[in-house]
C-alpha cells in the first residue's frame, strides 16, 4: 500500500514539474520572439546626428 501511494505521489510531482518546465519554456520563447520583433533600426536622422 505504501508503495502505491509513494508512486502516485511521485507521478503527480513529476507532472507538476513538467508543467512548470513547459510554462517556463513557453514564456521564454514568447520573450525572445517579442524581443526580435521589436528590434528596429535607428532612423536616418539619429544616425546623422551621431556623426557629429
UniProtKB/TrEMBL annotation:
Q: Which InterPro entries does this UniProt record tie to the protein?
A: AgrD (IPR009229)
Q: Which domain of life is it from?
A: Bacteria
- This chain belongs to the protein called Cyclic lactone autoinducer peptide
